[in-house]
Design brief:
The protein has a single domain (4-177), classed as Porin (Beta Barrel). The protein contains 1 helix and 12 strands. The model has no long low-confidence stretch (mean pLDDT 89). The longest helix has 30 residues, at 155-184. It has a 12-stranded antiparallel β-barrel. The protein is an alpha+beta fold. A hairpin with a 6-residue loop joins strand 9 and strand 10 (110-114).
Length: 185
């Protein structure tokens, strides 16, 4: 796998190779550069792998929800995402670096990480490179790494965390729709 910092300006896509499986690949046109895989079919623990390393992501807390990011095999948080009411929030690293996560469209399908001054670093836009019928039930996204991100040492974790947050948001929306349907019947 190649380092994400070497792929700035390259078209990247998160793809779901098989519908209904919680396994995702970050791809260029012809190769895999990262993976994100859920450990179980119904939990929130996921593992991300890149050329830069391996990390785990997990949603924790009920009254004080957050997402923790750890190096694989470690119990120490490298970063914590603190969500706000509408899904946006702040990703705080143990090093002191912080990044804003925010929606970039009305529907909440496109998101980005920005520096504290608002400079866009990374955008994730729902959809696939090629619209195919076989992709209808798959979750996919275009990833745009802005040139300003070239100096951000946390870039790899921004890419993985952003996709993890998008999948959680989709899962929450599906659960809410199922609950509303059950209540209506």
């Amino acid at each position: 796998m190649e380092r994400l910092s070497d792929l700035i300006g390259t078209a990247l896509y998160w793809v779901q190779p098989k519908a209904f499986e919680r396994w995702f690949e970050l791809r260029t046109r012809d190769r895999v550069v990262a993976t994100l895989c859920w450990e179980t079919s119904c939990g929130t623990l996921a593992r991300g792998n890149t050329a830069d390393g391996s990390w785990t992501f997990k949603r924790a807390g009920f009254l004080n929800p957050r997402v923790t990011v750890r190096e694989s095999g470690s119990d120490i948080d490298m970063a914590v995402f603190w969500p706000r009411w509408m899904g946006d929030g702040t990703l705080e690293f143990a090093s002191g670096a912080t990044f804003r996560w925010q929606s970039t469209n009305f529907w909440g399908t496109d998101w980005m990480f920005a520096a504290n001054d608002g400079t866009p670093l990374l955008a994730l836009k729902e959809g696939s490179r090629e619209g195919r019928l076989s992709d209808m039930f798959k979750t996919q996204s275009l990833v745009e790494i802005h040139p300003e991100a070239s100096t951000v040492p946390e870039l790899t974790l921004l890419v993985l965390t952003g996709w993890y947050l998008m999948i959680l948001r989709q899962d929450d929306a599906a659960a809410g729709a199922a609950a509303a349907a059950a209540a209506a019947s």
